[in-house]
Structures are given as structure tokens and as C-alpha cells.
Amino acid sequence: MARVFVYGTLKKGQPNYKHMINTAKGLAKFQGRGRTVEKYPLVIAGKYNIPYMLNIPGTGHHVAGEIYSVDDQMLQFLDEFEGCPDMYQRTLMSIEVVEWEGKGGAGEARAAAEGIMECFVYSTTTYPPEWVGLPYHDSYDSSGKHGLSYVLRESR
Question: What is any Pfam family matched here (predicted)?
Fold first, then answer.
């Protein structure tokens, strides 16, 4: 099992969460909520209002999201879904645990108790330069006050 931190449309209550709970795509077990240890710019960009975490450490906000434990099948699905490695790149980042529900081995419990764990995150280094000038968010909600509702793939 691998740990994945999601900050956008794959979170609970967001437009693509259905994929996280579709066991035909693999297993994803909610472990808790967290936020990036380093600051990153989280922008909503493009004509489909997609959330992107730009891989520019030290700029932006500590981005809030959810931590999942996923099997190899789900990780492969997420790579395809996120357009990895072209649109997003899957990299390890340090995530601060804000709230932990996970049940796992002693190592996992210790990591959660210490408050920081390494998780795969889909961020991007392949973005138009003007995205750096977009508003930065610390948390994503498709129906947030930004007014930029995500456009589902099936509606494009």
C-alpha cells in the first residue's frame, strides 16, 4: 500500500471522489486529513477550472487535503487519471497530519503521532508561466467562493 495526499477534486464531497470509492479501480482507504509541510501555490486554472498544485516549494500556502492508503491498482488508476507524468507528476512530499483515523502498523501509528508523513502528491512543474499569477488557495472546494466550478470530464 502507498500513501497518497489528495487536495482537489478527489477529496470527499468533491466531483471526482466517486473514483476513490470505486473498488473496480482499486482500493483507497481514508486515513486522515493533513496539509503540506511546505507552502505551495494551489491554483484553479484552465477552461475546466482544474485545481493544480504548482511544484514551487516555499510559495503560496500550506495546502489542506486528505491522506489515503491505496493499493497498486488504485495508484496506477490515479497515475492515468491525473495524466502522470505529462499533466501532473507524482512526487513524495512531507504532509503534516491534522486529524488521523487510520488503523495500521506500528510504524504508521508512530508517523501519525509524530505529525508528519511522506505521501505521494500529484503536483505539476508543467504549467503555463501565467498560472503563477493566479490567486493561491490553501484549500480546494469546487463550489467555493472563488466561483470557479470544476467541469466534469463527461461534460467537456
Answer: GGACT
Residue 6 contacts residue 75 (beta carbons within 8 Å):
no
Spot the catalytic one: 82, 108, 118, 130.
82
pLDDT tens sequence across 27-82:
999 999 999 999 999 999 999 999 999 999 999 999 999 999 999 999 999 999 99
Residue 13, Ramachandran bin (φ over 0: left; ψ between -120 and 50: alpha; else beta)? left
Phi, psi (degrees; rounded to nearest 5) at 65: -170, -165
CA 147 to centroid of chain Cα atoms: 20
DSSP assignment letter at 136: P
The DSSP output letter for 33 is E
Q: Classify 72 as helix, strand or coil.
A: helix
106: helix, strand or coil: helix
Half-sphere exposure of 1 (CA within 13 A, CB side): 15
For residues 35 and 85, the answer to whether their CB atoms sit within 8 Å is no
Q: What does the alpha-carbon distance between residue 51 and residue 54 come to, in Å, rounded to a whole number? A: 10
82 is an active site residue: yes
* CA-derived radius of gyration, the chain: 15
pLDDT tens-digit profile of 36-49? 999 999 999 999 99
